[in-house]
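Inputs:
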Amino acid sequence: MAAQLQDFSSEPSVAKYHTAHPLCPLTASEISTTADLVRSVWPANIDLRFKVITLDEPAKKSMVPYLEAEHSGASLPEIPRKAFVSYYIRNTDRFHEATVNLSSGKVEKNARLGPNDHGNGDYDEILQVEKNALEDEKVKEAIKKLQLPEGTAVCADPWIYGSDGNNDDERMYQVFLYMRDPNNANELDSNHYAFPLPISPVIECNNYEVIRIEYLPTGADNTVHEPRPWQSKPANEYVHEYQTLRTDLKPLRVVQPEGASFSLTPTGETGHVLAWQKWTMRVGYNQREGMVLYDVRYDGRPLFYRLSLSDMNIPYADPRSPFHKKSAYDLGDAGAGAMANNLQLGCDCLGHIQYLSAVITDDKGVPTPLENCVCVHEQDAGIGWKHTNYRTGRAAVVRNRELVLQSIITVSNYEYILAFMFNQAGELIYEVRATGILSTQPIDHELDKVGVPFGTVVHPGVLAVHHQHIFSLRVDPMIEGHANRLVYDEAHALPITPDWNPYGVGYEVSETLVETASGLDLNADTNRTFKIQNPSVRNPVNGKPVAYKIHVPPFQKMLSHPQSFNWKRAEFADHNIYVTTHADKELYSGGWYTNQSRGGTGVRSWAARQDSVVDTDIVVWIQFGINHVPRIEDFPVMPCEILKVSLKPVNFFERNPALDVPPSVQSFNQSVAVSEAHHQPSQELVVGKEECCATGERERESKL
Amino acid sequence: MAAQLQDFSSEPSVAKYHTAHPLCPLTASEISTTADLVRSVWPANIDLRFKVITLDEPAKKSMVPYLEAEHSGASLPEIPRKAFVSYYIRNTDRFHEATVNLSSGKVEKNARLGPNDHGNGDYDEILQVEKNALEDEKVKEAIKKLQLPEGTAVCADPWIYGSDGNNDDERMYQVFLYMRDPNNANELDSNHYAFPLPISPVIECNNYEVIRIEYLPTGADNTVHEPRPWQSKPANEYVHEYQTLRTDLKPLRVVQPEGASFSLTPTGETGHVLAWQKWTMRVGYNQREGMVLYDVRYDGRPLFYRLSLSDMNIPYADPRSPFHKKSAYDLGDAGAGAMANNLQLGCDCLGHIQYLSAVITDDKGVPTPLENCVCVHEQDAGIGWKHTNYRTGRAAVVRNRELVLQSIITVSNYEYILAFMFNQAGELIYEVRATGILSTQPIDHELDKVGVPFGTVVHPGVLAVHHQHIFSLRVDPMIEGHANRLVYDEAHALPITPDWNPYGVGYEVSETLVETASGLDLNADTNRTFKIQNPSVRNPVNGKPVAYKIHVPPFQKMLSHPQSFNWKRAEFADHNIYVTTHADKELYSGGWYTNQSRGGTGVRSWAARQDSVVDTDIVVWIQFGINHVPRIEDFPVMPCEILKVSLKPVNFFERNPALDVPPSVQSFNQSVAVSEAHHQPSQELVVGKEECCATGERERESKL
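Outputs:
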């Protein structure tokens, strides 16, 4: 990554620096100090545009002894506090990364990055791109061709430009234009995705000026015609004022009269230790990954060193320019941390909720609070286990209580609800819900009832192209220790043999060891099930190695051709599982810099080293996803599509770990019997001033 | 099925019979009357053993006009009220089925069934088999060889005998023996599955006498040795008195201060119409299927004529006799209705619950109440949809409220929690949770830490053999009408061509029509998605046919060989999807009589007719399951393993049908913010006299 390395190790040191815990996210003052230190290595007249200022996590070889000392009560080793920075010389393409040692007050590394390493988007940049696109004279002229009604508001959705090898070395934005319902100009939340426009400016990123205007193909083929006069059509609003709301939904509330069962103990200003039902872990947060969980243990037994969403990729199916470049990396291009919603009590989360806040940088190196970006709460998930002895009639039953850590990210049109969940049977579940608004583009009205094979018409003149959502979860295990292995079980029918399996019913399960770093796939025909195992720790009952198995649904792998940029860049999207050896900087399976990337820097490349992954420090990457074939019901906002990945203990415990959950009894649960005589009067729900999130996400001016 | 048809049409008629609705389950008096009528065709000294007395549902060609008249307010056609009966001449193998016309008071059909048609088990029979097995002198002698401690209680788990073609024409039971912890003789709920015994009596079903005693192989091969003296080992209890219970779980309650949003309107004594959030349906129940849903509509638009679990099969992997015959059909062999738990307020169901009860027959034709066999309640299932406009900061969010109809069945050692769920986005979810206790068999202690490839040692001396759980959901659709078709979508990458797809990113979705009845499979590599479509009703926006798509997880198909009885009998277990034309009596995909069956009477055989299934009255059978490779954590009771099948609208509506759900707001939801200062005092939970279900399931004497 480094082109020119600057050495600052001879700089004078500053006063001894103290941090609460090496894994705490950077504090506001650490962010400020880091920005100041980076600025200090440049002449005073050089203005920097910061993309990322985040914790440079300590090397695992330092962190593991630290955690061991922490758990055993021994004295804690010193670990220097460092920050990672990526930044531009403002209004240039000179992109740098730096490592700042906050303990010593030195910039340890400062390197200009290569020509195809580009920074992620940032909020102010997005707003600047929108503004410049809409105010550009040539864009206005193009829009005039549409003969829009007087006073129509045109909106801009800036998109990461993408990669196709055509003069795309410089960083740019592809801006898709929409308009709001001309009959409702004052409704700022009118759904502009119902009115896509066939004009797309391209903006360069030194001065954010429009460099060209593209016209979009709106038929079934490559034909691009001049923008035609706009044809009136209805709006398609999602905000509640435009719906005839149901009146028969009765409130359902979750109450915890004795409070919640979890504890979140602050560490310093930004960190937390979470304890709940024998689970303990450290909760972190950063601009790119959002939530990160460290040092996850059950009943003190080590399970996961680090858990995080590694990236996601959303490639689109329309082969025509410029849509062929639509391939979003919502973490690498934007940041799941940066994009997180400010969760509102009673809107996003039900029950007894604790909110966590975070702080990230803005483009000026100024710490920016992310209030309520994570919510933590319990939920009831039905029955946990039950057995009734039919001879006595005695039922033993417990409920399944889950702990949820949830964050919601808005990436332009789409939302993703991301949650880590834990239960009392020692299981971890990672859940993704996809919701929000389809990315839309214009289609000629003649095709409304005809359609095209690469998308679905979801509103008159509105095409939602098929696309894949492919997620990559990074699991850095420490199942009873750091030397783990990956194996998989498969079930095979036994052949019919007269002496052993004469009736043809027998089958066996055999285990295969994964020896080298590689990409691997599920196989439903053999019930292939991957397990992360520690063979040096044996189950006391049956002698089998302790393990955690992976339950993940299959998905259609990336459909883009291996020759395509899409395929080369989304290095995780071709296999259900990747396994590699641990390397401190190998965190993001699509590579460190995804914006307009070329590939070669992600998990497929790391796996190609073919390191031995047997009984060593391994990392498992779990992919899952959806091939989203839009339907009418997905517009104007789609009902949540839910994906879950589970990690479950296998021969890790000596019996069901949830056996000691107290029995489910009425005095505890206080359910209420509804009688048949109970009437359900209808009720008009008045939704008035009280709105969810009417106060806005972050303090910002509305730029329109 | 009929061997000898008796004609009773000349019998005198009785007074005109009235029923509330043709789809109501039989009432208690209808059950009694039916039993009396069947008895009346036999000499008085002939005693009958009833296996099933259930509603003989009206032919669809009668029912459809009835429902149409009902919905349109027209006058209702007359439909005769009929009951289906299967019964034995008590203490013989003479098995019959009869159809009784309750409206006319006549037995319309009464036929002796063939030699390989056997009836399901019944509760009294199970108890008789247990008793006779344990009291048999030869069994007692065999048990003596084990040299069990004085006063040890031996238990018997009667198993449906199974099929293997070896002198298995007569109906029998294979009884597996266990003992309870000898150190705890007074604990009637001691987990006997921790102490399996190597002795297995076989019992015939005329007089329920032991006809032979088998000894079980307990090693890794076929070797069967004489029962060895019992070796002491620990117990493995699941009831709470033997656990050190967690003390830090705080109550979580679901409250609905204005009541629940659903209404269940009784029809007659046994039926209900359910209405909730635009869903309406008729709820039924019977001995075999448990819950059945009829006439399911959303916003008055027809969706499903009939929904039910069709059967489930659990074949085991141990090829050795007698285990090779273990292959349970929990609906056909026992009855999901008959086996249903009596659900207890606050134990099984959380929140505002309405219970439904049912009535079935016992073996004497006496109506037997099943109190609280179904519970109905709402639950919150997280966020339903959300979008935040980042420019204004306004979030629009609604929660996902679900309606649950749930039943829990205990089939000897295992439990299944079966639920139909509906949500506000027009989606139906069928959920199965597998829990309860693994079926266990003895293994020599030398193998505890060695194991065998066809099972897992879960306790010293206790082997839990691998097995598959394969479920079959019967969906009789009427998507906007009764003429439907089955299609599937697949997504295929476009080839790279310079003029159309030069960047190699394009892909298309194509639809394939299923023309003839057949078994079909999923294919994750093409994202194959099945849809039930009505091409005569088109979406007004995009012109596509209205449809419902099926989301079902893949499963490893039955591993038993096609030559095996297992495979021939479980006709549904070899494909993810079956589609057939509707036939009134084609309800159970494993065949009508599953006990010791031969195959040839289930869905594979019906599909082999290769009827055209295009734009006609079709039935779709959806299979799903688990290959259960036991782990230590599954013992002594397994944490729920959850499977879900979803049916979701595709181009059925004009937009997201949940758009009119009122926004999620704090005044409605009343969440509570937990502060960081909140302490979580630990609390000792006293579990005293108040127990779930201590009062027992049904009134019965405890036979020990």
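Remarks. The mean pLDDT of chain B is 93. Residues 285 and 291 of chain B are 4 Å apart (CA to CA).
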